[in-house]
Amino acid sequence: MKILSPSEIKVSGTRTLGLDPERFDIFSIEAFAAGLRRVAGFLCPCPQRVLVQAVAKPLQELIAPTAELLEVVEDTLEAMIAYGDLLDELEVGALDRSNRSRLIYAAPPSFVSRQGGSVFLLGIAPDRTSALLEKLERRIVYRNHVRQLIPEPGEDLQNELTRHGLSELSTHVWLKQAPPDEASADLLKRIHSKLRENVGPISELTILNFEKPVNHYRRRWEPAKDQSGLFVARRPQSYGNDLWCYVQLERGVPVRLIDFPVDGGGSRGCDEAWRVQMAIDATRGTPQHFRVLDSDWPHRTVEFYSPVPSWASRHWDFVGEPIKQLGSLFAYRFTATEIAEEIDFMKRRLWLKEVL
Predict the structure, then answer these.
(1) Span 111-125, pLDDT tens digits
(2) What is the pLDDT of residues 263-318, one digit of tens each?
(3) Closest C-alpha among 317, 314, 308 to residue 346
């Protein structure tokens, strides 16, 4: 038996996750994503917080426990759900279908093809780091939460992956259908009309306070106390993920409320909630914003400071490249030929504002 040093544990842990310790640290986004895929293969279906704790707790033995570590793991998990490695779905098999919780499920191994022959890898193989043969697994390109395979000359990756049991998703299915263009005020008017009366007290209700600056998402969250107005909020349930909702408060007491997704179905509550918050900020004259950096010509890096719906982040996973960028919640790199179209997408679809 040998006692390993912290540095040896980091190297061993990185290698166990299927990553090269000479390229990735155990505290890299790529390692967090690999860890989440690994524990999801054992624990899903389960609430989000179970996966976050399963990855963060062992790492806290190597460093002093910090809120920042939990936040990064949570953000990585959110990116993986938006990407398609994991599914945020209503509980399957619940006896009371009218009161089902939302849980995280592991998506089956699959892939999406790009023009030129490269593929995005999706899903999780239970009890394994990858669903691929070792010769292909060694060629995976890891960028934050995204995994990609680049074909060698003359290679047909789509055919080879299909022969080994992976399902191919069309880009139309994977990219999801974005909601139609509409003015932010029109969206809020439609949501307001669906609020239900006579809600009553809700314990541990937290709200996304629109009066706080838009450039730090987490600091905008606070407990419902004596606030009045219409807020995006979250309310706990005994099992499963916290519920997203839209609530009218009078001195901290809910008087009207509707849960997201408003029309039910398979859409994610957080996707609707984040878009409604964008509409709130835009109509108040303090729109959420993004920043374009020219430091890596001929590419452009775009920094974001608040989460976006999964149909937007998945679109950017496809046309851009997720990167690490200190000082922002997340960031993407785009080619110079794509940046104008993507900026238009940000402004038109999400009502975001570019800042210098």
Answers:
(1) 999 988 899 999 998
(2) 766 678 999 999 999 999 999 999 999 999 987 778 899 999 999 999 999 999 99
(3) 308
Assigned token pair, 113: 């093809």
Q: Give the torsion through C-alpha atoms of 49, 50, 56, 61, to 10 deg.
A: 130
Residue 184 corresponds to which tokens in the numbers above?
Answer: 């932010």
CA 145, 155, 319, 125 torsion: positive or negative?
negative
Q: For residues 195 and 178, what is the distance between their CA atoms, to the nearest angstrom?
A: 23
Residues counted in the chain: 356
pTM of the model: 0.88
pLDDT higher than 80, residue 108: yes
CATH architecture of 289-355: 3-Layer(aba) Sandwich (3.40)
Q: How far is 179 from 285, CA to CA, in rounded Å? A: 22
Give the helix ranges, DSSP H, for 236-338.
269-283, 310-319
Cα 265-275-34 angle, rounded to 5 deg: 75
Which structure tokens are listed for 80?
A: 């993986």
Calpha distance 263→162 (Å, rounded) = 36
Which residues, listed in sequence order, are joined to residue 120 by a DSSP beta bridge? Answer: 112, 148
Return the H-helix or E-strand segment holding 331: strand 330-335
| Sign of the C-alpha dihedral computed for residues 309, 74, 259 and 265 taken in this order | positive
Q: Alpha helix locations (H) across 225-294?
A: 269-283
- Which has the higher per-residue pLDDT, 15 or 264? 15
Q: Is 245 exposed, middle or buried (0-12, 13-18, 19+ CB in 10 A)?
A: buried
Write down the domain spans for the chain. 6-90, 107-175, 184-280, 289-355
Strand partners, 250: 253
